[in-house]
Amino acid sequence: MASHPLDGNGHDTAVVVAHEIYGVNEHINGVAEMLSPYRCDVFTPSFLPSGVVYAREDEPRAYREFTRTPGVAGMGNALAQYTDGLRERYRRVLCIGFSVGATSTWLASGTGAVDGAVCFYGSRIRDHLDIQPAAPCLVIFAEQEPSFSVSAVTERLAGRKGVVTEVHPCRHGFCDPGSPHYCARHSRKAWTSATRFLGLPR
């Protein structure tokens, strides 16, 4: 699970970007680049076997292989272990996750493994509403999710200590420039919310 920060400037904040079913693809690397102006070290570990990266047209295979290993729970455990390993070097360890990476981030946040988290359209969070994040957590949803009611989930999360929800009138993947559902305007809005929520310094 090789992963290295984009820079080695001795920052006291680490940000781990948790990938989707495709692995550490151009979108995840792009997110890491977007974080480069901030005073933090960025990590993009792969939690897929051998660090495989799937093309978007291989979505069925990527989904099938992800559910086989590591799965959401397995990735959540691995992510918690990974962030815990950064504790000796950083004062703050933050996590930004997308899709399955967002649900894994949600699970990891419940263990106290991170000091702050942002979960972009983690649809399977609906299966883990019993989790209480131990640190501030921003959950960003796309309003148009075909597999579940976003309003029902946000209602369940309303009032949860340390949890903030934000819903954008878009479809799943709206922050990914490579997705057919990409929406530049709302991607920028969500990104601004994320960086402010995490208190990332420039």
Description:
The protein is globular. It has helices at 26-34, 59-68, 71-84, 100-109, 150-157, 184-198, and strands at 13-18, 41-43, 92-98, 116-120, 137-144, 163-171. A six-stranded parallel sheet has the order 2-1-3-4-5-6, sandwiched between helices. By secondary structure, the protein is of the alpha/beta class. It is 33% helix and 19% strand.
Task: Summarize this entry quickly.
This is Dienelactone hydrolase family protein. The chain has a six-stranded parallel sheet with strand order 2-1-3-4-5-6, with helices on both faces.
Keywords:
alpha/beta; 19% strand; globular; Dienelactone_hydrolase-like
Average the pLDDT over all residues and give the rounded result. Answer: 94
Q: How are helices and strands ordered from N to C? A: EHEHHEHEEHEH
Radius of gyration: 15 Å
By DSSP, the count of extended strands is: 6
What's the layout of helices and strands?
Blueprint: E1 13-18, H1 26-34, E2 41-43, H2 59-68, H3 71-84, E3 92-98, H4 100-109, E4 116-120, E5 137-144, H5 150-157, E6 163-171, H6 184-198
Parallel strand pairs: 1-2, 1-3, 3-4, 4-5, 5-6
Helix pairs in contact: 3-4
